[in-house]
């Protein structure tokens, strides 16, 4: 399982505060969705989430999952990745910093962190007399498995 900066309990506690702040009804669906993404540790589509929670959350629908994901992203609980035309994938926003390598053939997503790249990004922003406040790096590749299939 992926390492996060916060425990699931801490994230759920923050969710309850956010629900209260936004004057929303407390919904178990939000918790189930966050828990599914947290426990998977990967990059889930709304459809993946639906399959994961439909047994424990009988009133879940794909449209409610999209609505809840939009709320969770706006409130900073999840981050989305635009992988390809198939739509967004979601991950917990409080994970440790990383970038992504995405296979354009099979959609496989790998995470990486490279200190040299991180340092270079700071150098580039300094050369523009700017301060780096964040970044997302997505490298689109044909993965080793897909390359092997074409041989």
From TrEMBL:
UniProt binding sites for Fe cation: 97, 99, 118, 135
Biological role: Acts as a global negative controlling element, employing Fe(2+) as a cofactor to bind the operator of the repressed genes.
Organism: Helicobacter pullorum MIT 98-5489
Highest taxon, organism lineage: Bacteria
Comment on bound cofactor: Binds 1 Mn(2+) or Fe(2+) ion per subunit. Binds 1 zinc ion per subunit.
Cofactor names: Mn(2+); Fe(2+); Zn(2+)
Subunit and interaction comment: Homodimer.
GO molecular function term, any single one: DNA-binding transcription factor activity
Residues bound to Zn(2+): 103, 106, 143, 146
Keyword Membrane (UniProt): no
Chief location: cytoplasm
GO CC terms, sorted: cytosol
InterPro entries reported for this sequence: FUR, Fur_C, WH-like_DNA-bd_sf, WH_DNA-bd_sf
GO biological process assignments: negative regulation of DNA-templated transcription; negative regulation of siderophore biosynthetic process
The entry's keywords: Cytoplasm, DNA-binding, Iron, Metal-binding, Repressor, Transcription, Transcription regulation, Zinc
Subcellular location: Cytoplasm
The protein's name in its UniProt record: Ferric uptake regulation protein
Family: Belongs to the Fur family.
Hydrolase found in the keyword field: no
């Amino acid at each position: 399982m992926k390492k996060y900066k916060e425990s699931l309990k801490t994230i759920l506690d923050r969710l309850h505060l956010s629900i209260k702040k936004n004057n929303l009804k407390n919904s178990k669906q939000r918790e189930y969705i966050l828990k599914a993404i947290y426990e998977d540790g990967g990059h889930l589509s709304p459809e993946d989430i639906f399959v994961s929670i439909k047994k424990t959350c009988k009133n879940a629908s794909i449209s409610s999952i999209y609505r809840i994901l939009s709320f969770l992203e706006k409130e900073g609980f999840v981050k989305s990745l635009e992988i390809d035309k198939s739509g967004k994938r979601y991950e917990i926003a409080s994970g440790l910093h990383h970038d992504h390598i995405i296979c354009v053939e099979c959609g496989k997503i790998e995470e990486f962190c490279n200190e040299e790249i991180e340092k270079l990004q700071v150098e580039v922003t300094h050369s523009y007399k700017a301060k780096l406040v964040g970044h997302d790096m997505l490298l689109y590749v044909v993965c080793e498995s897909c390359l092997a299939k074409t041989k």
